[in-house]
Amino acid sequence: MLKGPALVAVSTEKLRLLLSLLHRRSLAFPLGTVELTRHGLQEQSALLLGTLRGLDETGVRAVLVAVLAERSAR
Question: Total domain count for the chain?
C-alpha cells in the first residue's frame, strides 16, 4: 500500500527523465537513493522510492508509463 503523496508531487519532467534513463538502460536496479542521486533526482528520491522501491525494471517502466499517460490525458 502506498503512503503519502506517491508520485503526485514529482514533476512530469522528472518522471520523463527517469523513464528516459530506464529506456537508455542507465539505471541500476534495485533503485535506491544513491542511484537516484547519481542522476540528479536526490530531491525526489523519498517520493520516488516510496512508490518504486522493490520493483524491477519492468515494474518501474509500467508505473512510469501509466502515470505519464494519465497526466497527458488530463
Answer: 1
Query: For the segment 44-53, what is each residue's pLDDT rounded down to a tens digit?
Result: 999 999 999 9
Q: What is the pTM for the complete model shown?
A: 0.88
Give the structural domain span for 63: 12-73
What the block records as the C-alpha cell of 72 is 497527458
Question: Are the CB atoms for 4 and 21 separated by under 8 Å?
Answer: no
Distance, in Å, from the CA atom of 66 to the CA atom of 36, rounded to the nearest integer, reads 20
Rounded distance between C-alpha atoms, residue 27 and residue 41, angstroms: 12
- Is 1 part of any domain? no
Buried b (16+ CB within 10 A) or exposed e, 50-61: bbbeeeeeeebe
How far apart are the C-alpha atoms of 4 and 47, rounded to whole Å?
8
